[in-house]
Amino acid sequence: MTNLRAAGWVLATSIAAAMMPATVQAQDVTLRMSNWLPEGQTLRVQAIEPWIAEVEKVTEGRVKIDVPPKVIGSVPAQFDVVSDGQADLALWVNGYTPGRFVISEIFELPFINDDPEEYSAVMYKFYQDKIAQYDEYAGTHVLMLFSPGSGPIFNTVRPVEKVADLEGLKLRSPQPVVTEALQILGAVPISKPVSELYELISSKVVDGTVLPMESVVAFKLNDLLSYGTGIPGGLYNTVLVLGINVDSWDRISEADQKAITAISGEKFARAAGGAYKHSSEAAKQKMVAEGMNFITADDAFVADLKQKLAPIEQSWIDHAKERGVEDPAALLAELRKVAGSKAD
User: Which of 108, 215, 227, 222 is nearest to 166 (CA)?
Assistant: First the structure.
């Protein structure tokens, strides 16, 4: 009888445990995050690090994120680092792997929106509603997708006041859209990650770069660059994605997944874009104060750019069609509408 009572108690305990709230059963999870952003960089300080702290807070300490001192793998390979499970999560730049995220290149096209705070929020929602179905980030769960904004054209050689001034300039390109644009405009694009730019410019391998103003200062390139030209409406936009390995995501309880999702997504995108926006304004003031010759493209220059870069839009439409998008032109028209397009 005693054994029967004991067995009954064990069964009852097991049933009660199974009925406990998920937050009680949830196991502690420590995630390893690969990081390549330098100390003091805007996104790292104002968005990533506060988000890491908030993850621990909203999960009541059950989910922690550990950031090793060195990047895991190479900067261009961060998507593979996450999808292959070398790290649990990381930030990657779509443009560092040309031809891989073709459908998402819709966000990079010229003259859609040059306000990173506004556009980042639009991008994330549009991605979830219209782009996620194509599963370009297989093996990962996308936590946020956003933009640091469109960067001016910087160089060490001469002011860029018209298209002809770009002829022959060797400019680092962050992504395929910019590479195509620079080729059309007569410049020589060189595709390299931003982490290599200081050495490239200082050794005169490149004459300059297309890059958000905040990043110019964050990577200390303002010490090397003499000329900058801002392009109203944006020559391009960069897509940044923070994703987590799907198996790592599944290790987290459903309740904690919901808590993390609530502080990520569109909320994070707007905060990250806003941080870039305000830091870029401060960076511009700093560069001008230090003596950089910075100008804003006039209406004639912008009109010439739009006319010459029109084929880039059709190129994306053709490639997106090949990747299974039924009506890419309609999809792009919809993005321009919700983003308050600066194309006209």
Answer: 227
**Distance in angstroms (rounded) separating the CA atoms of residues 209 and 238:** 14
- Give the separation between CA 344 and CA 337, rounded to whole angstroms: 11
Residue 49, Cβ density class (10 Å: 0-12 exposed, 13-18 middle, ≥19 buried): middle
Question: CB of 216 within 8 A of CB of 149?
Answer: no
**Torsion angles phi and psi, residue 94, rounded to 5:** -55, -40
Quote the pTM value: 0.84
Selection from 240, 235, 100 nearest residue 163 by Cα: 235
DSSP 23-83: HHHPPPEEEEEE--SPTT-HHIIIIIHHHHHHHHHHTTTSEEEE--SS-SS-STTHHHHHH
> Tokens 């995220």 correspond to what residue?
101
- Summarised one tens digit per residue, pLDDT across range 81-124 is 999 999 999 999 998 888 899 999 999 999 999 999 999 999 99
The backbone torsions φ and ψ at residue 229, rounded to the nearest 5 degrees and listed phi first, read -130, 115
